[in-house]
Design a protein that fits this description.
The protein is an alpha/beta fold and 303 residues long. 29% of the residues lie in helices and 24% in strands. It contains nine helices and 14 strands. The radius of gyration is 18 Å and the shape is globular.
């Protein structure tokens, strides 16, 4: 028995329908070599005075456009992280090698401090500008990237881990007419849910009333319904930052709302992982999800 079947429980949940996925794929095991992928760094997508840029991971020449594309949003508690962190590089290279154009963005972050082992104190809260940067990146994909990188603006997904997973859920739920699929790795679906309330200070206002309004506006679940693009959620049972109880609660709430979603629960996985955590290989599952909802990228050597 392989490591996937030994170490985790996987459920695909499609508005209540449970399907056992397949974890074998010859194409997943033998993608084009990394040297064939084109990576372009520090591309401007915001105003000229903004320091935040994006990196592009472009498919090999063996794929013909227009390409389906993925907007990748990094994690880091809305205060740390970078578009070129190891997780983002791994995801970008993996998806690009299978024919998806990937655009990994930096966005405006909170300023924060921590004394010793004390809690994080956010000295500048930028909400909603972090979401607005993600919206600007989405607009850039639908305009500039179409001409420059042969992106298909009708086949876009958004993806992220942790804080990036939260922003991916929020962006996809806010713009269901522009995004066809959402992937959230260990992201937060509702900032008011008790298991994650300790993280809500990243969106705090100057008064309790303002904070309540901000948390409601920044909680993706309030915007999710049966018309939300299909969601892919992956979460580890050993997550100490966003507990697994939050993910299980979120799936129940999604089912109540009639949302279409796939849920992967990984036994023993911690908070942060890419598409190849030691407990399982997520690549076949994620690629199957993208292919189902964005369509298969076109290889020149295949009809």
């Amino acid at each position: 028995m392989n490591r996937s079947s030994l170490s985790l429980l996987v459920l695909f949940i499609l508005t209540g329908l449970f399907v056992l996925p397949s974890f074998t794929s010859a194409e997943t095991q033998q993608p084009p070599t990394d040297e064939m992928i084109v990576r372009q760094a520090d591309i401007a997508y915001l105003a000229a005075d903004r320091a935040e840029k994006l990196d592009a991971y472009l498919p090999p020449d063996s794929f013909s456009g227009p390409h389906p594309a993925v907007l990748l949003i990094h994690g880091g508690g809305w205060r740390l992280g970078d578009k070129a962190d190891a997780r983002e590089r791994e995801i970008g290279r993996t998806l690009a090698s299978h024919g998806y154009a990937v655009f990994s963005i930096n966005y405006l972050l909170n300023d924060s401090k921590r004394e010793g082992n004390g809690p994080v104190v956010h000295t500048r809260v930028v909400w909603p500008r972090n979401l607005e940067d993600c919206e600007a990146a989405l607009h850039w994909l639908q305009t500039e990237a179409v001409a420059r990188y042969h992106v298909d603006p009708t086949r876009l997904a958004v993806m992220g881990g942790s804080a990036g997973g939260h922003l991916s859920l929020l962006l996809g739920a806010t713009h269901p007419d522009k995004i066809r699929a959402i992937i959230s790795l260990y992201g937060i679906g509702d900032l008011n849910e008790p298991h994650v309330q300790s993280l809500a200070s990243a969106f705090a206002g100057t008064t309790p009333e303002e904070t309540a309004v901000r948390l409601a506006a920044a909680s993706p679940l309030a915007r999710i319904d049966a018309h939300t693009p299909p969601l892919f959620l992956a979460h580890g049972t050993a997550d100490k930052i966003v507990p697994i109880e939050h993910a299980r609660w979120l799936t129940r709430e999604l089912q109540k709302r009639g949302a279409t979603y796939w849920y992967v629960e990984i036994a023993g996985a911690p908070h942060t992982f890419d598409l190849e955590p030691p407990q399982m290989d997520l690549r076949p599952t994620v690629l199957s999800f993208l292919e189902k909802h964005l369509g298969r990228p076109h290889r020149k050597d295949k009809p």
